[in-house]
UniProtKB/TrEMBL annotation:
SMART domains given in the database record: AAA (SM00382)
Primary localization class, coarse: membrane
GO CC annotations on file: plasma membrane
Membrane topology category: Multi-pass membrane protein
One of the GO biological process terms: cell redox homeostasis
Transmembrane stretches, start-end: 18-40, 52-72, 133-154, 160-179, 246-267
Keyword terms: ATP-binding, Cell membrane, Membrane, Nucleotide-binding, Transmembrane, Transmembrane helix, Transport
Statement: the UniProt record of this protein carries the keyword 4Fe-4S: no
Name listed for the protein in its UniProt record: ATP-binding cassette, subfamily C, CydC
Compartments, as annotated in UniProt: Cell membrane
The organism's taxonomic lineage, starting at the top: Bacteria, Bacillati, Bacillota, Bacilli, Bacillales
Organism name: Halobacillus dabanensis
Keyword Transport: yes
ABC transmembrane type-1 domain span: 19-302
Length: 568
């Protein structure tokens, strides 16, 4: 049950609604037993044709039990479902709070379709934990014990039969099917995750599949995933139906045994015949509370697997142990000392023994061929990743001791891929600063060469913007944020040379006294940099100013000559 520890913790928080659910569930169950017991006794009593006044009290009890049953059932459903919705809300909040710090990393480990399946499907599955797993056994045991005590007043033999029925329907059969359900594993969830992944890729890649005429093959894969999911669902449903059938069979068998034992006791004079119908009706009614136990094994296994799949996303990630905050208004100094990094699950080092000093207020360009480790290095500076060896310090403090929020809050970041939200240009710019005035936003747009109106619509993922427009909008957001650390990863790779030159002019003006780190595969316009770091295959091969590297005629010089020959 360790997979459900977090879920159980959240369930226990709703003590009041849980207690009220159990109390009213017990009231509803015992009222139903009392209603049918009174009915059985009334039928037997009426057969002897007693005076009407003798039946009046029994009729009054019938009405009382009927009213109490309806009231108890309504209140039980109300409080149990309110508890469920609150638990589900707390579960989502708890999960998202754990997921949020690791959001930049989870897409490296999970495909988006599988993530969607876990976050939506598995959370929804856990809504059954309280109603179908946690709550029914408690109410079942209380009602059965109360009924057995009541029945033992009339017949120990019948009470013993009911106790045996309780053990069978409430313990042995659910335990047996729990073992069988465990053997099925989490094939349904894997199949659902695979279907979600295939569907997501099919929709996102529809245009490319059309262009390369691979639509039919992908549709076939999607159909196979759907068929596999339906097959696993069918197996799971058959298992649940089998459990329900056995539970019902034992319930009816117990009622027949109660009838037989009661008839034998009446024949031997050990039981008043007036109570036989009452005891039979009690046995039929009390086992209604055992019906939820038939589906408990399926929901228990489902909840365990859902919780395991859900929290495995964040359990494998370390907690942010940073406590220090960066000082606002100061341009930070960054030092990387003998840094090594490899992606999770890989054996190849992406960064190897990287040592770089970035002084406060300096301008540093990191250049190199594609795949040389430039963008990975930037991820370490943003604390998206953690080095496997070495140290990254900010203002003399190990970055691991600085909170992630503080690093992100005090950085102007432009990545290769940036997200654009459905809405307007204004709303996308306000991500950087809610306090920016219209004049400031328009000025930032003009500096990056955009003539957009602030109320111009932006479609999902910026589908109505070109690649260059997207990059310039991201740079405008960075301009508006106005922090003292600039982390830019190929910020103008899709921008024409004329606009790029104008953008860098305004960038250098804004970042005149700030610390700036620029990742670029272009070597033009780097003369204004204080230092240039040249990387190849994850290692630093050269460092120095533009003039120093050109005089050295090393790796950077050769790259520059190749670029000049290509674009000359």
């Amino acid at each position: 049950m360790k997979e459900l520890n977090e879920v159980i913790r959240l369930v226990v928080l709703e003590k009041r609604d849980i207690v009220l659910s159990v109390v009213f569930g017990f009231l509803a169950g015992m009222s139903a037993v009392g209603l049918f017991a009174s009915s059985g006794y009334l039928i037997s009593k009426a057969a002897l044709m007693p005076p009407l006044y003798a039946l009046t009290v029994l009729i009054a009890f019938l009405k009382l039990f009927g009213f109490a049953r309806a009231l108890g059932r309504y209140a039980e459903r109300y409080f149990s479902h309110r508890a469920t919705f609150t638990i589900l809300s707390n579960l989502r909040l708890s999960f998202y709070k754990k997921l949020e710090p690791h959001a930049p990393r989870v897409f490296q480990k999970y495909r988006s379709g599988d993530l969607l399946s876990r976050i939506v499907g598995d959370v929804e599955s856990l809504q059954n934990f309280f109603l179908r797993v946690y709550y029914p056994p408690v109410v079942l045991v209380i009602i059965f014990l109360g009924t057995i005590v009541f029945t033992s007043i009339f017949s120990i033999g019948v009470a013993t039969v009911l106790l045996v029925g309780l053990v069978l329907t409430g313990l042995l059969i659910p335990a047996w099917y729990t073992v069988k359900q465990r053997k099925l594993g989490n094939k349904v969830r894997h199949a659902r995750g695979n279907l979600s992944t295939e569907a997501t890729e099919f929709l996102y890649g529809f245009r490319d599949l059309k262009i390369y005429q691979q639509l039919d093959a992908k549709q076939e894969n999607l159909q196979h995933a759907a068929d596999a999911y339906l097959e696993e669902q069918e197996k799971d449903s058959m298992q649940m139906l089998s459990s329900h059938s056995w539970n019902t069979f034992v319930t009816l068998l117990v009622s027949w045994v109660v009838t037989g034992v009661g008839a034998l006791l009446v024949a031997e004079g050990d039981l008043n015949g007036l109570f036989l119908a009452m005891l039979v009706m009690v046995s039929l009614t009390v086992f209604e509370n055992a019906v939820p136990m038939a589906v408990l094994p399926s929901h228990l296994q489902d909840s365990k697997l859902a919780s395991e799949r859900l929290f495995s996303i964040v359990d494998g990630e370390g907690e942010d142990k940073g406590t220090l905050l960066l000082e606002r208004g100061n341009a930070p100094e960054i030092v990387l000392s003998q840094v090594h990094y490899r992606f999770p699950g890989e054996t190849r080092d992406v960064l190897k023994d990287v040592t770089i000093t970035i002084p406060s207020g300096s301008k540093t360009a990191i250049v190199g061929a594609s795949g040389s480790g430039k963008s990975t290095l930037l991820q370490l500076l943003m604390k998206f990743q953690t080095p496997v060896m070495g140290e990254v310090t900010v203002n003399g403090y190990d970055i691991q001791h600085v909170t992630e929020e503080s690093v992100w809050q005090h950085s102007n970041v432009v990545l290769q891929e940036n997200h654009y939200f459905y809405g307007t240009i204004r709303e996308n710019l306000q991500l950087a600063s809610d306090d920016s005035s219209e004049e400031e936003m328009i000025s930032a747009l003009e500096e990056v060469g955009l003539s957009f109106k602030l109320d111009q619509p932006v479609l999902e993922k910026g589908e109505n913007l070109s690649g260059g427009e997207k990059q310039r909008l991201s740079i405008a957001r960075a301009f508006l944020k106005g922090e003292r650390l600039w982390l830019l990863d190929e910020p103008a790779s899709s921008v024409d040379a004329l606009n790029e030159k104008e953008i860098y002019k305004h960038l250098y003006e804004r970042a005149k006294d700030d610390t700036l780190v620029l990742i670029s595969h272009r070597l033009s316009g780097l003369e204004r940099m204080d230092q240039i770091v040249v990387m190849d295959d994850g290692s630093v091969v050269e460092q120095g100013s533009y003039d120093e590297l050109m005089k050295r005629q090393g790796y950077f010089y050769e790259m520059k000559q190749i670029e000049n020959n290509i674009f000359s």
